[in-house]
Amino acid sequence: MSENNKGSILKPFRALKFIGEKPVTIRTPFENRPTAPRYRGFHVNDQEKCIGCGTCAEICDNDAIRMIEIPGLEPEVGSSNLRPAIDYGRCCWCALCVDVCTTNSLNMTQEYTHVSEDLNTFFMFPDTEGIHKTDFPLGYQASDDSNFLDLERVEMEELSPEERGDSFIEIVKGYSKEQAIAEASRCVACGLCTDTCPAHMNIPEYIEAIWDDNLSEAGRQIYKTNPLPEVCGRVCTHKCETACSIGQRGEPIAIRWLKRYAMDAIPAEQYGDVNNFRVVKPLGKSVAIVGSGPAGLSAAYYLRLMGYDITIFEKYPEPGGMMRYGIPEYRLPYDALDKDINYIEEVGVEIKCNTTIGKDIPFEDLHRNFDSVLIATGFHVGRSTRVPGTDHKDVFQSIDLLSKITRGEEIQVDEKIVVIGGGNVAMDIARSLARKQKVKYGKVNIIVTSLETRDIMPADDEEIEEATEEGCVFYPGRGPVEIVIEDGKIKGLKTNRCLSVFDEQHRFSPKFDENDIKLLEGTMIVESIGQGPDMSYLDTYTDKIEMDGRRFKVNEFYQTSIEWLFAAGDIIKGPDVINGIAVGHKAALGIDKMLENKKDLFYNTIFDVLDKSLKFEEGCRKSSSKFAGKFSPVVNNMITDLTVKSKDLEERIKKLIQNENVLIHLDKKLKRPQEAGYFERCIAEEALADTTSEKDFLKNMERKTRVAFGLYHDLEKLTKNKELEFLFGYLKAQKKKQLEKVEKLLQK
User: Fold this and answer.
1) 423's torsion region: left (phi>0), alpha (psi -120 to 50) or beta?
2) Using CA atoms, how far apart are residues 334 and 340, in angstroms rounded to an integer?
3) Which residues face 511 on adjacent strands?
4) In which residue ranges of the chain is pLDDT below 70?
5) Does the predicted model carry a pTM greater than 0.85?
6) Residue (of 292, 296, 286) closest to 372 by Cα position
7) At what angle do helices 424-441 and 398-406 cross, to 10 degrees?
8) At 350, is the secondary structure helix, strand, or coil?
9) CB-CB contact of 215 with 266 (8 Å)
10) What's the pLDDT at 378?
11) Across 275-341, where does the E strand assignment appear?
12) Whole-angstrom Cα distance, residue 295 to residue 308?
């Protein structure tokens, strides 16, 4: 035995030398073990920075994050009223949620201790103060090395200013397949874009389809709420992109360009196959639509799907309204517009061009010959500044010139031109005239002036930037005083500096500095300060229709003060293509409500109804399969049978989703309104997953099956489509069989 291992009665006293030293043991909870700087402890979330996009919940493999609605928090553009709550019984501290946070609001601290006998306390709602409201340093945070988000947009190729300067060829070239897939891969499917879009398009769904290179599915998703995708893929104001969560830290997803890619890639002759177009049984009722702009075409498309006979009356030689006669071809090529319109005609909408209501056909005849009338006329009448000199022959309205350019008519193009206005139409005419000048004179001499300063000009930034590249010179923040005329010829536009455009109540009330005077030289003046409607066609109905300023006053269904007369588009809300499409769709539903004489209706696409049914069946199957082999043989056999049958029902629903494109109407006053609400909760909560005993399992199964049976029974009676009627009848029959089995087992 070595000397060191020999025993000694004094050995215990050797510990006395450590009495004055700090013990190695950490005295929890009074002390905490120091952590690494990037330790992954409990979360903190800056509620102000967080936009509730749900990306953290989406990436969590353990389903530890739930998005919770915050009372009193109102949704805004680009932000929902949801915030993440974390179940630390499920969390594995992987920090993927931090890496993928689109606003960097979610981080982790160096706090790691929480002791409680109450399991509910492990479900926490993180804020900036931490879970115990104590000061802990931040731990793991997102960095460039761990960033999962692709923040840079795939660049869109465009013609250079030199290439496009004297041509009306489309400027934007469009994405290639590889570019589109790369751009689509950046999307985190937060859905904030859908909430912001006036038409509430299924944006994440069609972007995902593009990513999967499934263009047919992308087209089908787009057409659910937008029958003018080629148009919107080019000239949509893309409000959705302002709400994109990726745009919080980088460049937003190019949603508009992706829509264009998908529809450009689908040949026109395949549109019908993509949408599997079928009109429900003809209703024997007809609707007249005045105007073939975005609102009129949208309403016509969806009304036709419902089974109505639709006739559109258009005063111009070609359909499209302001999309054709107000937007230059370099922004919206006519073949792209025609591709959309041709498909709308293909589904059975009749368009009569060169037909002016009030001149060729009295307005009263529409009422007499049709069951309902929709007014969807645009703003075709230009507004004047009314300053001295506007009655000169060389003063023009932008909308008149743009219309003539579309029709191929010759227009006056002087060497020096002044355009008054700061909106997109002003940019359109300025850039169109610049091209005409380049061809005629070899150079551009266009001045654009507006009341608004550059930072608040209503035109899109890209329009202003491209106009500048093409040679237009801007004098923003100036108001017209008079058109200076010498010897019968225009010399220029006299302007004052504009101090403010709106008053404190945001009413239009410009103020000027009359001492700051500037003459903008030009021999031709173009006014582009807005447009108004021409309502002369209404004839004797003018005094019968209640107005709201220059627009029709309508109810929530876009019905005017005359029962059979509806209105949509610029004369309600606009001018804006996507708003026109959205309002046209809603007006179509309103017309259907009136003609069907239904009360308290809500409308839904068949896809939404079937999607809910599909999720319900999937939830039942997955929940039930968790208990396979855990109960008595007879119940286990029933679970096996249920799993097989549910799979069959899912396949039937999926098949119909892929092959149907109709609208149905569902009455709010279902026979089982309470159960209808429970049906929704069943989808979200999967109540079967919480059962522990065989009896509880059967009770939950009985309740779920009864709910499904009742809803499928009602849907079978309400639908107008034979295929849907057969499907819901089959679903109802299967649920009835399941219900009988469950009830029999419960009795035992």
Assistant:
1) beta
2) 10
3) 500
4) 1-8, 29, 146, 276-280, 574, 597-610, 623-629, 656-692, 717-724, 748
5) no
6) 286
7) 60
8) strand
9) yes
10) 83
11) 286-290, 309-313
12) 17
Match 């692709």 to its residue by tokens: 150
What does the pLDDT read at residue 455? 93
Count how many residues are written for the chain: 748
Task: Name the 3-class secondary structure at 713.
Answer: helix
Closest alpha carbon to 268 in 360, 217, 337: 337
Confirm if 303 and 592 have CB atoms less than 8 A apart: yes
Q: Rounded to an integer, what distance in angstroms lies between the CA atom of residue 405 and that of residue 383?
A: 19
Cβ(670)–Cβ(714) below 8 Å: yes
Per-residue model confidence (pLDDT) at position 506: 87
Cα–Cα distance for residue pair 289/78, rounded to 1 Å: 35
Radius of gyration (C-alpha) of the chain in whole angstroms: 33
User: Which residue segments constitute the domains of the chain, with CATH numbers given?
Assistant: 29-148 (3.30.70.3270), 161-275 (1.10.1060.10), 286-380+537-597 (3.50.50.60), 383-532 (3.50.50.60), 602-618+625-747 (1.20.1260.10)
The residue type at 277:
F
CA-based diameter of the chain, in Å? 127
Q: What is the pLDDT of residue 663?
A: 43
637 vs 628: CA distance, rounded Å: 9
CA–CA dist 387, 449 (Å, integer): 15
Label residue 214 left, alpha or beta by phi (over 0 means left) and psi (-120 to 50 means alpha).
beta
- As to burial, measured by CB atoms within 10 angstroms (0-12 exposed, 13-18 middle, 19+ buried), residue 451 is buried
Tokens matching residue 604: 């839904």
Return all residues near 271 (Cβ < 8 A) that are at least 6 apart.
219, 343, 346
What is the token pair recorded at 167?
Answer: 């041509």
Residue 333 tokens, joined = 């090529």
